[in-house]
Amino acid sequence: MKITRVRQIVAALTLLGFLGMSSASANSLITTSPISGSTVTTAPTSVTLTTQVALLPDANEIVVTDPAGVRVDDGTLTMTEVSATIGLRPLVESGIYKVSYTLYSEGDAPLEGSFTFNFSAPTVISPNEASPTPTESQTPASSSWGTNIFIIFILIMAFFVLIALVLYARKLFRER
Q: Both 6 and 37 in a single domain?
């Protein structure tokens, strides 16, 4: 009778513990502009990185280098909630440009990485005239509830296996 009461209390506490858990989320890159691996024929004036988790306003870094390894970003980093934009000097050399980044979000490890894009310079470079373009707001990616439920199920099953092993070990110890 005492054992079933203890089991009920342990089961209730375990259930309450799992209900109070929040899912872990790591920051990841959602989109880049220019798109990673793409070829652009019009020189971009900036590079934008959009992440899954809100970024901290300070300490982030984006470096853009030309095919010769020379920095072509102008150092002006603009932050919004989930995106970081670095301005570029006018690009004149064709080739593969490398974007290296280190982005910080609260309570998460730094998001570090790099990607490349190919700039195919036109034969005559004409200055880009600024024209406002409407932008669509992006909805942040949501986590997969199926994965969360699967992980919770695995943890619950592991807990029951642990309880069964403890009870089995007690039984073996008492039989000695």
A: no
